[in-house]
Design brief:
Elements (H helix, E strand, L loop, with lengths): L1 H18 L6 E2 L4 E2 L4 E5 L2 E8 L2 E7 L9 E5 L8 E11 L2 E9 L9 E7 L8 E6 L15 E9 L2 E8 L12 E9 L2 E2 L4 E4 L14 E9 L2 E8 L8 E7 L12 E9 L5 E10 L6 E8 L8 E10 L5 E2 L10 E2 L7
């Protein structure tokens, strides 16, 4: 009799354990088509921003792994400096409003006219109307706006109560887009105006960021971990399988951010493998419950040169010295645990 009771209790425990076993949500990469993925977390919402057909779109969702309905917030004008070639927008919430930083030009190819423009929302609603604040000055002579120089991929760093813009640009304005790209930094007067002259922060000089047909530093993105501040950027050719990520680390957070000697370069910190090609141009967000760090990035769909790309995401960890450990890209189709706190 005693043995029978034990057996019945064990069977009941097994059945109830199966009933209440938590279900772990998973997803697979890639998550959607596209390039230059920009995702930011505002409250409980994930906001994405992208360009298509010379227009800029925004989505908002409670999930990282699926975007909400896309709404067009801006269309390039029929004339002017920004009428064509709208690239890689980012959206930032600063001082109660949304600011979109994007690259555009008058024509292309060749893409020799690219400059950086700014849009500003009329309220804290990400889907509100946006006004065009014009082009930012990214040259060496702020007193002469006609001397503006090629600039793309601008991002914003907020540090110790100050705003800084970091972007990819040319040393001089050129007549060919086969021109090396560098990272520049400038302090900002406000979210739509520079305060001073630009400073060259990084050039493609290391062996792991050179060696191809065109040496590039582009797609800078800000990543913070406690007191540590990083600029994670893309290098090598964006149309080839060797596209990868490098990193700049701010040495002294109380020092001069406009001094290149206050930054240390290392890399590559994330690169492709036998099944995932040309990884780059990323953004970073926390999981819904704030316990995990995730990288959102794009990769090439094929090994042939070109810009057919899709968007991927995966969790990353931190090394003991406070630097990010991005690991290796997961192959397409591999089941990945969904971000912690993400519901059905």
């Amino acid at each position: 009799m005693f043995f029978l009771l034990v057996l019945l209790n064990f069977t009941f425990f097994q059945e109830t354990s199966q009933i209440y076993l938590p279900q772990i949500r998973t997803f697979t990469n890639p998550v959607w088509d596209g390039a230059d993925p920009w995702m930011t977390k505002q409250g409980d919402n994930y906001v994405c921003c992208y360009s298509a057909n010379n227009a800029i779109f925004v989505t908002q969702s409670k999930k990282m792994t699926s975007r909400g309905e896309a709404r067009k917030i801006w269309t390039a004008p029929s004339s002017g400096w920004n009428r064509s070639c709208v690239w890689a927008p980012e959206i930032h919430f600063i001082g109660g409003r949304w600011y979109v930083y994007y690259a555009a030009g008058i024509s292309g190819p060749p893409f020799v006219h690219q400059r950086t423009g700014v849009l500003r929302s009329k309220s804290e609603d990400v889907f509100s109307e946006y006004e065009d604040m014009g082009a930012l000055y990214t040259g060496d002579h702020p007193e002469d706006t006609s001397s503006n120089i090629w600039a793309i991929d601008m991002t914003i760093l907020e540090h110790n109560g100050k705003l800084f813009a970091i972007w990819s640009g040319w040393v001089n304005q050129e007549n060919t887009d086969a021109t090396p790209q560098h990272l520049f930094i400038s302090e900002m007067e406000n979210p739509f105006a520079m305060k001073g002259k630009r400073v060259k922060l990084s050039s493609p000089e290391e062996t792991w960021e050179t060696g191809g047909s065109l040496n590039l530093n582009e797609g800078p993105e800000i990543l913070k971990n406690g007191e540590n501040t990083f600029v994670v950027y893309s290098c090598r050719e964006s149309w080839l399988v060797d596209y990868r990520l490098g990193l700049l680390q701010l040495n002294n957070p109380d020092g001069n951010l406009l001094d290149p000697a206050n930054w240390t370069k290392r890399g590559p910190v994330f690169q492709g493998n036998a099944t995932v090609f040309g990884v780059g141009h990323c953004s970073f967000v926390k999981s819904p419950d704030q316990t995990e760090d995730w990288i959102i990035y794009h990769s090439k769909k094929e090994t042939a040169p070109g810009w057919k790309r899709d968007v991927r995401m995966q969790q990353f960890l931190w090394n003991s010295d406070g630097t990010p450990n991005f690991g290796t890209p997961y192959p397409a189709g591999q089941r990945i645990n969904a971000p912690s706190g993400e519901s059905e």
